Amino acid sequence: IHPSGDHILVGSYDRRIVWFDLDLSSTPYKTLKFHERAVRAVCYHKRYPLFASCSDDGSLHIFHGTVYKDLERNPMLVPLKVLKGHHGGNIEGDKNKSVLTLEWHNRQPWIFSGGSDGVINLYQDI
């Protein structure tokens, strides 16, 4: 849920991220399909106009998402960066590179990710 409370991001196993603008309607405002496998988590930054998604394809996608106070203007969504840093799981021969969760730092534009390889990564130069 966006800090304003009027926008919701939903990630799904069909590789999509759906943005709902509750001020406009109950149908999705935008559907984004950037991942190659199931989306595991999506998260807004509490302070900056950023949001991110992580997936079973081993990547994090960082987006700039500006929400305007003027109800006449639609939110602006811009893909910024694709981050890869997780490798195969702990089981020998496991090719799964899932990024299972992510979380933004409270004050900085830094993001943490946790993967199926048992590693927590911090990305700070976004």
Task: Please give a handful of descriptors for the protein shown.
single chain; 126 residues; 4-stranded antiparallel β-sheet
Overall SS class: mainly beta
Strand content: over 45%
Main sheet characteristics: 4 strands, antiparallel
Radius of gyration: 15 Å
Q: What's the end-to-end separation, in Å?
A: 22 Å
Segments where pLDDT lies below 50 for 5+ residues? none
Overall, the morphology is globular
Q: H/E series, N to C? A: EEEEEEEEEE
Quaternary state of the chains? single chain
With strands numbered from the N-terminus, the spatial order across the biggest sheet is: 4-5-6-7
SSE inventory with pairings:
Elements: E1 7-11, E2 17-21, E3 30-32, E4 39-44, E5 50-55, E6 59-66, E7 76-84, E8 99-104, E9 111-115, E10 120-123
Antiparallel strand pairs: 1-2, 2-3, 4-5, 5-6, 6-7, 8-9, 9-10
Descriptive report:
The chain is an all-beta fold and 126 residues long. The protein contains no helices and ten strands. The chain is globular and about 45 Å long. The two termini are 22 Å apart. The model has no long low-confidence stretch (mean pLDDT 84).
Q: Nutshell version of this structure?
A:
With 126 residues, this protein is mostly beta strands. The chain has no helices and 10 strands.
